[in-house]
Amino acid sequence: MKQMNNFPIVAVLLPGAFLAILNQTLLAPAIPIFMDDLNITENTAQWVMTIFMLVNGIMIPITAFLIETFTTRRLFLTAMSIFAIGTVVCALSPNFALLMTGRVIQAAGAGIMIPLMMTVFILIFPIEKRGAAMGTVGLVISFAPAIGPTLSGWLLEQYHWKILFYIVLPLVIIDIIIAYFVMKNVTTRTFPKVDFLSIILSTFGFGGLLYGFSSAGNYGWTNMTVIIAILVGCISLTTFILRQFKLKQPILEFRVFKNKTFRITTVIGMIAFLGLIAAETILPIYMQNMAGFSPLDTGLVILPGALLMGIMSPINGRIFDRFGARWLVIIGLSLLTVTSFLYTQLTPTTSLTYITVVFAIRMFGISMVMMPATTAGLNQLPNRLIPHGTAMNNTMRQVAASIGTGILVTIMTSTAMASGNTTTTVDQIHGVNVSFYVATVLSAIALILAFFIKGTTPAEERAAMVAEGKSS
To answer: CB within 8 A of 197, min separation 6: which ones?
Structure first.
């Protein structure tokens, strides 16, 4: 396929994925409003966010099977239509139950979008141009969740919370209409056999883990619901993995981890994504509850870093195409490690400028890690395994963000409570600092792993793959 024919496909995939990811964090500032308007508690209101991530995590592992079963065009139109239906349900919901129903439907469509987009991009671009293409994907993945709270915070000051869905809906419909006419079939259909037991095990496995660790931050690790969810998740996931090795056509191909580069870059991507989500979760708590900043201040802290990451993602993609991933990832993880350490020095009087500048540098570093590492790993796989590679990569990142954030929030709260049942602001901030110490150690581990990434360029990898007969 010539590159000039790729533009219509890119033009519908990127907005669709942007809207899907945007909705993951768009409702964060609306949680206090939901509490008042729908007469619910904070723990209940948080589920408008948690349920979206939970269903996303359940859907992503199944996408490799869906991509190999349905045409690209049909799967994209179906995913976006499901997302649109969920948006309508949310916009019309008179109560919390219906709002949650809409969020589940939204997430079911959104969970298909990112692996589908990444798979299509890897297939339609030659290996030496994938860095630039995936850099654009990185722009969407990083910019959408970062701008969501800022955008919705401004809208909620002016309008009712339903405006968040009424604004998204026409954009989704426009993308569906354009896709109907321009979307092409790219992926190869292999019609794998439906293994319903694998789908059930995957749902309970990933769903149980995501639910358990997401809930741990709210209810504590000793809560029976949390313990049961994690146990069910671990047992189901172990059974699911063992079953995939026995199936001739597995739902999710765990053999992709046999490739050393894919294995290393997946772990690095998990830690980098955890660094992104954890900071966006913990910093607002510190700023608003401990340092006296407003929600608008929090949004403004995140915005410059989001803009910088959005600008740098395509640039880093082009650098990747020319020089490879190794030094990009090493420099990026060095910045992530340093900024994580800088956030261990927070006090009640830390300035807004300090928090903003450190966060911007942090996002700059993450932009050098996320898509270059992902693309370097996927480049090592033959085309037939790319749908499984993208599904695995996205699943592992989602699990890492959920589990890691749950652990870091728990470390933050338990450290603050170590001095007694009543905590002062200084105790609470000490908990925040300790959680960033843990993040610093994780970033340092990823940095060490980065030195094991191959130092080859995509052009050199293509030549090697052709020589080995892997390009087909």
So the answer is: 243
Q: What is the mean pLDDT of residues 9-37?
A: 82
Q: What is the pLDDT of residues 42-87, one digit of tens each?
A: 567 767 877 887 788 788 778 888 888 899 899 999 999 999 999 9
Cα separation, 100 vs 32, in Å, equals: 16
* Cβ contacts of 451 within 8 Å, gap of 6 or more: 326, 330
Give the domain ranges of the chain: 1-184, 193-250, 256-472
For 468, other C-beta atoms within 10 Å of its C-beta total: 9
CA end-to-end distance (rounded Å), the chain: 14
C-alpha to C-alpha distance for 24 and 16, rounded to whole angstroms:
13
* DSSP assignment of 394-426: HHHHHHHHHHHHHHHHHHHHHHHGGG-SS--HH
Could you give the 3-state DSSP secondary structure of residue 28?
helix
Q: What is the pLDDT of residues 299-347, one digit of tens each?
A: 778 888 888 887 888 888 889 888 888 999 999 999 999 999 999 999 9
Q: ∠ at Cα 43 (300, 37), nearest 5°?
A: 75
Q: Between the CA of residue 286 and those of 226, 324, 347, what are the distances in Å? A: 25, 38, 10
Domain 1-184 and domain 256-472, same fold? Reply is yes
**pLDDT band for position 450 (50/70/90)?**
very high
Residue 4 pLDDT class (50, 70, 90 cuts)? very low
How many CB atoms neighbour CB 249 within 10 A? 15
For the domain made up of 256-472, give the CATH fold: Growth Hormone; Chain: A; (1.20.1250)
CATH of 1-184, one of 1.10.3720.10, 1.20.1250.20, 1.20.1260.10, 3.10.20.740: 1.20.1250.20
* 268 close to 450: Cβ distance less than 8 angstroms: yes
